[in-house]
């Protein structure tokens, strides 16, 4: 049970990290502590901390154990429900992700707080958010460790399934 | 009563029924952007989250950066750029560059000319461009060095992915196979097939990510028969070269693939049809 909870909280972190990924290349990043549901705890928070560490890839030299070693809710961890991660400041503004879990599986993930301030933001949201949602669900349901496909460039990485897998294991 | 009582089989041993139980080992991923590609290393094993592993991964990334500095075609100071401009004779280049040039010649021979490192440059004259082989060669080498280094910390499983090409190996016996998803070239967050891998490489060539960047050395034109070609084999350097060749060959790929030893291929044709090919035993 704990494994499942840690598993999907890692995915919350992954989604938040996906959004914050590019920020480590450019603008400085900070973690905002958003309101969280009862089911959320240190996992998502430490995941977003990871993105503040800078470097070429977020968290690549980060603190060991930060993403997957967060504690799970201590009592009555359910394999169903909705869980909201902490908000992360990204280049595009704050992002907060909520996942819906049924039977231990992510069935849906959505950004509940996302940048919406200008046409560029809306454009990013229009493609990035659905792509990330699907990536998270696909990666988990097929338990894939790596993807083989036509060459992924650094620019395309943020939306790739491989990044969802990488970020979940940082 | 019979004289020959059946001997008690392995099933009689408590808690051991013919398979080593799967243990959930610590795991850690490292990601850096090198050669314009995301390169990730995944390590499974008891020390996966320890400092030695992090140090070994950092060394691997450093070695790939050194390769990039030597082989980049867009960094003007690299040896390969100097060879391309005619400032440096290939014979006078470093041992690594000469080794790669030799491997490129070998690759052309193995692929019946479908792979070539002497492609028309801007002026139309053939210029040395080993880019299509360097990534596979460098990542295979970096992977082997990383594995050898990690052996000092006990058995660990290692997977390295570089921009969609994957090489993996397992030193442990209690871990599940690595699972490599082959991307659907028409919808890149979907997979068409999953390959279980304990040791070996999976490489894909296609047009989905970078546009039509693969050209047939014979015609100079992009081939259009396939959306993607994936090769599964023992080493990334050759899986990668063969994937490029199969993509270039297009409709002619299956005929060539059936003579290729120790490799399997997954081809996606222009209509999205998926076929699996492997050499006849």
What do you see in this structure?
The complex is a heterodimer of chains A (170) and B (281). With 170 residues, chain A is of the alpha+beta class. Helix content of chain A is 38%, strand content 17%. Chain A has five helices and five strands. In chain A, strands 1, 2, 3 and 4 form a four-stranded antiparallel beta sheet that branches. The longest helix of chain A is centred in the C-terminal third of the chain and has 24 residues, at 119-142. The two termini of chain A are 21 Å apart. Chain B is an alpha+beta fold. Helix content of chain B is 29%, strand content 28%. Chain B has six helices and twelve strands. Chain B has an eight-stranded antiparallel beta sheet. Chain B is globular. Residues 8-16 of chain B have low confidence and may be disordered. Chain A binds chain B through residues 3, 55-57, 59-61, 64-65, 68, 131, 134-135, 138, 142-154, 156-157, 159-163, 165-170, and chain B through 24, 27-33, 36-38, 40, 42, 49-51, 54, 58, 159, 161, 163-166, 168, 178-183, 185, 188-191, 194-195, 202-210, 213, 228, 230.
Estimate percent helicity of chain B.
Answer: 25-40%
What is the mean predicted local confidence, pLDDT of chain A?
48
Task: Summarize model confidence as the mean pLDDT of chain B.
Answer: 87
N to C succession of SSEs of chain A:
HHEEEEHEHH
Structural class of chain A: alpha+beta
Envelope shape of chain B: globular
Summarize the amount of helix of chain A as a percent range: 25-40%
Helix and strand pattern of chain B: EEHHHEEHEEEEEEHHEE
Cα(first) to Cα(last) distance of chain A is 21 Å
């Amino acid at each position: 049970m704990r494994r499942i909870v840690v598993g999907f909280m890692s995915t919350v972190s992954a989604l938040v990290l996906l959004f914050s990924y590019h920020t480590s290349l450019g603008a400085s990043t900070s973690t905002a502590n958003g309101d969280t549901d009862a089911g959320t705890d240190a996992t998502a928070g430490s995941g977003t901390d990871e993105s503040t560490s800078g470097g070429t890839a977020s968290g690549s030299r980060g603190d060991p154990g930060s993403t997957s070693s967060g504690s799970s809710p201590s009592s009555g961890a359910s394999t169903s429900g909705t869980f909201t991660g902490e908000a992360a400041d990204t280049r595009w503004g704050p992002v907060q992700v909520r996942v819906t879990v049924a039977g231990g599986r992510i069935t849906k993930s959505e950004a509940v707080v996302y940048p919406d301030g200008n046409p560029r933001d809306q454009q990013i949201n229009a493609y990035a958010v659905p792509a990330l949602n699907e990536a998270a669900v696909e990666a988990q349901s097929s338990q894939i460790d790596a993807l083989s496909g036509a060459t992924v460039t650094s620019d395309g990485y943020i939306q790739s399934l491989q990044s969802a897998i990488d970020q979940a294991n940082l | 009563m019979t004289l020959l009582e059946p001997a008690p089989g392995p099933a009689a041993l408590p808690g051991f029924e013919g398979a080593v139980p799967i243990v959930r080992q610590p795991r850690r991923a490292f990601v850096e952007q090198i050669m314009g590609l995301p390169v990730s290393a995944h390590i499974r094993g008891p020390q996966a989250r320890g400092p030695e592993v992090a140090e070994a991964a950092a060394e691997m990334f450093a070695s790939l950066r050194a390769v990039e500095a030597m082989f980049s075609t867009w960094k003007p100071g690299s040896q390969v750029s100097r060879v391309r401009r005619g400032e440096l004779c290939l014979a006078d280049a470093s041992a690594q560059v000469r080794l790669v040039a030799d491997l490129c010649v070998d690759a052309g021979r193995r692929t019946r000319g479908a792979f070539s490192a002497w492609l028309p440059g801007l002026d139309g004259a053939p210029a040395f461009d080993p880019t299509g082989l360097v990534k596979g060669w460098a990542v295979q080498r970096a992977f082997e060095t990383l594995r050898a280094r990690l052996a000092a910390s006990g058995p660990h499983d290692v997977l390295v992915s570089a921009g969609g090409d994957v090489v993996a190996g397992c030193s442990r016996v209690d871990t599940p196979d690595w699972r490599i998803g082959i991307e659907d070239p028409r919808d890149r967050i979907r997979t068409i097939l999953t390959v279980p891998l304990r040791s070996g490489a999976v490489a894909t060539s296609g047009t989905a990510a970078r546009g039509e960047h693969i050209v047939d050395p014979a015609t100079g034109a992009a081939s259009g028969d396939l959306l993607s070609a994936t090769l599964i084999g023992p080493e990334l350097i050759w899986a990668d070269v063969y994937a490029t060749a199969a993509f270039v060959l297009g409709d002619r790929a299956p005929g060539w693939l059936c003579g290729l030893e120790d490799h399997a291929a997954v081809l996606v044709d222009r209509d999205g049809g998926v076929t699996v090919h492997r050499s006849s035993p």
